[in-house]
Amino acid sequence: MLTPRLSRPVALLLLVSIGFTGVRVSAARSVGSTNDAADIPASASALTDGGPVFISRPETQTAYVGGTVSLTAVASGDPAPTYQWRKGGEPIPGKTSSTLTLSPVQLSDAGVYTCIAYNAGGMAESAAATLTVEPAPVGPFSRILNASVRTTLDTAQTLIVGYTLSSGPKPVLMRAVGPGLARYDVPNFMRDPKITLFRGNTWVAENDTWGGTPDLISTFVRLGAFALVNSSLDAALLSTVSGGHTVQVFGPAGNVLVELYDAGDGLTPRLTNLSARNRVGTGADILIVGLVIDGTAPKSLLVRAVGPGLSAFGVTGVLADPKVGVFTSTQTRIAENDTWDPGLAATFAAAGAFPLPAASKDSALVLSLAPGSYTLQVSGADGGTGEALVELYELAP
Known about the structure:
Helix content: under 10%
Number of helices: 3
Largest sheet: 14 strands, antiparallel
Distance between the termini: 22 Å
Strand content: over 45%
Order of helices and strands: HEEEEEEEEEEEEEEHEEEEEEEHEEE
Structural class: mainly beta
Radius of gyration: 22 Å
Shape: globular
C-alpha cells in the first residue's frame, strides 16, 4: 500500500485553516524504540477477570519497498495491557505499542505478524496479519489519497459531496464528523450527523452512528484518520465502490467535517474527481476542501469554484463572484483565481467538466501539486454569499 509520510492529517488542516487553533494532538508512545523485547511474565497465560481481550485486529496488507506501513491491534483489559509484536512467532525488539510501524519498508519485512497483549489477568494473542512487500513502482507516481470538506449546515441543509473512482472497484472510507470535532475546540459542531451514499439516484448505504466497531477502528488507524469516541454520534461507512458516487450529509445545524479516504492498495483504481456543493458564507463559514497528494511526483489538477455557472442547472441564490485559493499545510497561499480564463475551455472538456458560460465570474485554475497536504478555500471575491460548487479533477500527465 502506498502510504503518505505526512506530518499531520488533512482534516486537522481544515480546522486550523479556519481559525480553530486550539488543536490538541496526543502522541502515542513511539514504536521506533530501540529497547529490547518486552519481558512477558511467565504467569500471564490463563485469562482471568480483567485479562486482555482484542477488540481490533491487524489487517493483512501489501506495502512497497521504501514506503511506510502500520499494523494495529487494540486490546481491552484492566489494568491496561502491555503489547509485544511478533514476526513469525518471534518477538520484535522495541515494538511494544498497539501500532507497529515499519518505515522504510524492506523486502525482509514480509511475513506473518501477531501482537501479544498481557497484564496481571493473563495474556492474549491477536489474529495473524500477513504483510506482502513488493518492489516500488517504476518511475514517478502520485494519487489523491484523502479529501475532506468542512462547512457549516443549517438544519434544513444537506451537504452533497461527489467523487469518482476510476478503473475499477476499491474500498473507500467515508466519515461525517460532528461530535468528534469537540476535541479540537470547534464550536457549534453538528450533534448527530447522518451520511448516505448514492450511485446516481440509487441508495447504496447509510450510517447514523458509527458504533465503535473494531473493523472501523483499525481502518481509522491504518489510514491515519483521527480517532472517534466509540459511543459518539459521528457517522462512518466503509464501502467498496466503482465509478461516480455522491455522499449526502445532514443533521442538526452546526459545523461538520466530511472525509473520504482511499482505503485500498495501489494506484489503480484511484480517486480522480471530487466535488462539494453548499452555501458559502463569510469568515469561518466559507467552503473549505482538504486534500492529500500521495506519491513521488507532482499531480496535475484542475480546480474550479462555480457560482454563476450553476444557474443553468436551476440552482438559485448562487455565489455571484466566487474566488478559490490553494494553500499549503503551513497556510501559505500558492495559487488563487477570481475569474476563469476562457483558454481553459479545452481543459474542461478533456477532464469531463461541464462548460462554463462565456465571461462568467466563475473561477478555475490548473496547477501541479507536489505530494503533501493542501486546502482549497472558496469565498466571495466581493464578500458575497451564496450557493457554490467546488470541483477537483485529475488531469492526464
